Amino acid sequence: MFKITFQDSAETFEVPAGTSFLEFCQAHDVPQAFGCTAGNCGVCCCRLIEGAENVNEMTDQERETIELQGGGEDVRLACQLIIQGDIVVQAVDL
Ligand code: FES
């Protein structure tokens, strides 16, 4: 199990390896906007504050979607973010 910490609330949850961040949010009633769940719409942007080494690499599709939304280097798509270690996240509204 790994830890997800929400920067704004400092709440921490345990999550099994390989869970997507969006799956985690849906399972725990964490408010996280989403749409397509496939990395295309960009509605689910979140900011990865810590733990970039503990998640999957960004695909070209995810990078393109984030760029279209005007997201920066630390922005990821919740539906594409796979948890592989401890992370700290923050919701963003681009
Ligand atoms: S829900 Fe559409 S990109 Fe994540």
Q: How would you explain this protein's 3D organization?
A:
The protein has 94 residues and is α+β, with helices and mostly antiparallel strands. The chain has one domain: Ubiquitin-like (UB roll) (Roll), CATH 3.10.20. It contains two helices and five strands, in the order ββαβαββ. The protein has a five-stranded mixed β-sheet with strand order 2-1-5-3-4. β1 and β2 (12-15) form a beta hairpin. The longest helix has 10 residues, at 60-69. The chain binds FE2/S2 (inorganic) cluster (FES). FE2/S2 (inorganic) cluster binds at residues 34-37, 39-44, 65, 77, 79. FE2/S2 (inorganic) cluster binds next to loops.
Write a short abstract of this structure.
The protein has 94 residues and is of the alpha+beta class. It has helices at residues 21-27, 60-69; strands spanning 2-6, 12-15, 45-50, 75-77, 87-91. The model has no long low-confidence stretch (mean pLDDT 93).
Q: Give the tally of β-strands.
A: 5
Bound chemical compounds:
FE2/S2 (inorganic) cluster
Q: What is the total domain count?
A: 1
What CATH architecture do you see?
Roll
Using only C-alpha atoms, the radius of gyration works out to 12 Å
Q: Compute the average pLDDT.
A: 93
Labels describing this entry:
5 strands, 5-stranded mixed β-sheet, Ubiquitin-like (UB roll)
Topology (elements, then pairings):
Layout: E1 2-6, E2 12-15, H1 21-27, E3 45-50, H2 60-69, E4 75-77, E5 87-91
Parallel strand pairs: 1-5
Antiparallel strand pairs: 1-2, 3-4, 3-5
Bound molecules: FE2/S2 (inorganic) cluster.
FE2/S2 (inorganic) cluster binds at residues 34-37, 39-44, 65, 77, 79.
